[in-house]
Amino acid sequence: MKDMSNEQLIRATYVTAKYENPQTAQLLTELAGRLDGALAAARTACLERDAAVRAEIEWEKAMMQAVGEDGVGDVVSVIEKLKAERDALAAENGQMLRLLTDISENHLEYLSEGEDCMMAGVPLDYVSEINAYVSRDVEAENPFKATDAFLAEVRASTLEDLAKKKREEKMSLHPDTFALGSVIAALDMQANELEDLAAKLRQGALS
């Protein structure tokens, strides 16, 4: 009997119950039913656990593929870097929002007789402060480094995508293409120029 599987034991218990007195039969049937239910619950729990493990593995693979890293630790580092960049962007956006709020709350509206329309006047101090931020010169510092770096990354990534397409176009050329060597050289030159420009955009954002 010890060699019987759980399913075989349950079936055997149901069969045995048929030949026992009512009280024993009821007890055996109850035991078999509970065992059957416990096994079903255990199977469900195992399936859910396996599904969760597979989902976690797939997530890790997707993140590694997305960020181009090889280990979970590297992925975590990339995520932390993204969070830091997000926080920096939020801080800079908050600063600009403060400047705009200052203008909104402190401007004056008046009727211009010459223009025959409503005009708005803003204290010069607020205008000067915004001009300093827009010109990226607040106490000789760029107050929007994170914003500029983010925008530079967007532009640089676009240029790199174009460079990748140029290289893919080169690889897809038919051997019988007219002036094949010249076409390949031109595509390589275009791709290199796009990649160089992308690097300069990133470097410019950091300087």
In summary, what is this structure?
It contains six helices and two strands; from the N terminus they run H-H-H-E-E-H-H-H. With 207 residues, it is mainly alpha-helical.
Q: How does this structure look, described?
A:
There is one protein chain. 76% of the residues lie in helices and 5% in strands. The chain is mainly α and 207 residues long. Among the domains are: 6-67; 144-207. Strand 1 (108-112) and strand 2 (117-121) form a beta hairpin. Helix 1 runs antiparallel to helix 2, helix 2 (22-67) crosses helix 3 and helix 3 runs antiparallel to helix 4. The mean pLDDT is 81.
**How many strands, what sense, and barrel or not for the largest sheet?**
2 strands, antiparallel
Tally of helical segments: 6
- Percentage of residues in helical conformation: over 70%
| Radius of gyration over all CA atoms, rounded | 35 Å
Uncertain residue ranges: none
The share of residues in extended strands comes to: under 5%
Task: Give the terminus-to-terminus CA distance.
Answer: 78 Å
